[in-house]
């Protein structure tokens, strides 16, 4: 393991992500708990910025590189970089090297960071070899495979492996678990009608499972699906997988207010 020894725990820089920071901080706290419980020394650099994905997906490579440089500087001294998002982890791991391919100074730094960047659940399962987190959750859950986690980061069996050991939970598969929810970052802004039809199809698939809880590892997907479920009057609870694995489910699910209004 890079930089670690028999007496020193590995250092992990948590890339919180913009959505977690602004919309669901509990996911970040859950990620820290999972990593620390697994024996890691976790830091959350204050200098971290957006991963640059919105600019990159819009074809704005100059701004994407400027943002990526800040991320590289903030995280390059850690043994590993972990993000509770396949989308952001995929941006760093797969696209940073190409962004700096023509820069002899930044290219090796970008490649080095890419090589030690992981999505949270795959890091727990593949690197730390965690199998049983002694978590408990009362419910029937179904898991949504986000496009970036599945196709860029190879995250498929890892979340199911960990969820299978959650006491009190029954995991049921949706037939279209690998189908895009229609969020796609800027896709839902550029093509709202198509995005809306896609998320409706996703909601139909989820509701047909009979599950009372939807889990996933990418907050963008979860917020998109939770919003549509709420508008369609569904009571299905929506949570990031880290919240369940860390036993941090006291707060309201996504799509529900923190405090219900009293008359």
Could you list some keywords that capture this structure?
Rossmann fold; alpha/beta; four-stranded parallel sheet; 263 residues
What's the SSE blueprint?
Layout: E1 11-14, H1 18-23, H2 25-37, E2 41-43, H3 53-57, H4 61-75, E3 80-83, H5 86-99, H6 106-115, E4 117-119, H7 120-127, E5 136-143, H8 147-152, H9 157-163, E6 167-171, H10 187-190, H11 192-208, E7 213-216, H12 219-231, E8 237-240, H13 241-245
Helix pairs in contact: 4-6, 5-6, 7-9, 11-12
How would you characterize this protein structure?
With 263 residues, the chain is α/β, with parallel strands linked by helices. It has two domains: 11-125, no CATH class; 131-245, 3-Layer(aba) Sandwich (Rossmann fold), CATH 3.40.50. It has 13 helices and eight strands. The chain has helices at residues 18-23, 25-37, 53-57, 61-75, 86-99, 106-115, 120-127, 147-152, 157-163, 187-190, 192-208, 219-231, 241-245, and strands spanning 11-14, 41-43, 80-83, 117-119, 136-143, 167-171, 213-216, 237-240. The radius of gyration is 18 Å and the shape is globular. The protein starts with 10 loop residues before the first strand and ends in an 18-residue tail after the last helix.
Biggest β-sheet: strands ordered side by side in the sheet: 2-1-3-4
- The portion of residues assigned to helices is 40-55%
Q: Major beta sheet, specifics?
A: 4 strands, parallel
Termini Cα gap:
56 Å
Question: Based on the structure, what is the oligomeric state of the protein chains?
Answer: single chain
Average pLDDT confidence is 94
Shape: globular
**Structure annotation, total helices:** 13
Number of domains: 2
Hey, roughly how much beta strand do the residues contain?
5-15%
Number of strand segments: 8
Structural class: alpha/beta
Radius of gyration: 18 Å
Ranges where pLDDT stays below 50 over 5 or more residues in a row are none
Q: Order of helices and strands, N to C?
A: EHHEHHEHHEHEHHEHHEHEH
């Amino acid at each position: 393991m890079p930089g670690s020894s028999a007496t020193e725990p590995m250092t992990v820089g948590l890339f919180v992500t913009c959505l977690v920071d602004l919309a669901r901080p509990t996911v970040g706290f859950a990620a820290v708990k999972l990593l620390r419980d697994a024996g890691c020394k976790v830091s959350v650099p204050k200098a971290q910025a957006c991963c640059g994905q919105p600019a990159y997906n819009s074809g704005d490579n100059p701004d994407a590189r400027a943002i990526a440089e800040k991320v590289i500087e903030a995280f390059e001294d850690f043994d590993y970089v972990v993000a509770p998002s396949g989308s952001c982890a995929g941006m760093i791991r797969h696209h940073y090297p190409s962004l700096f391919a023509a820069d002899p100074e930044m290219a090796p730094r970008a490649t080095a960071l890419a090589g030690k960047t992981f999505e949270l659940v795959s890091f727990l399962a593949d690197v730390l070899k965690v199998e049983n987190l002694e978590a408990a959750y009362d419910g029937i859950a179904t898991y949504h495979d986000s496009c970036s986690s599945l196709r860029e980061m190879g995250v498929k069996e890892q979340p199911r492996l960990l969820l299978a050991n959650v006491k009190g939970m029954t995991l049921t598969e949706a037939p279209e678990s690998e189908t895009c929810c229609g969020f796609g970052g800027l896709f839902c802004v550029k093509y709202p009608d198509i995005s809306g039809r896609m998320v409706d199809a996703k909601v139909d698939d989820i509701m047909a499972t009979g599950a009372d809880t939807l889990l996933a590892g990418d907050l963008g997907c979860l917020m998109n699906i939770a919003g549509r479920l709420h508008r369609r009057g569904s009571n299905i609870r929506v949570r990031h997988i880290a919240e369940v694995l860390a036993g941090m489910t006291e707060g309201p699910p996504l799509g529900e207010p923190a405090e219900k209004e009293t008359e």
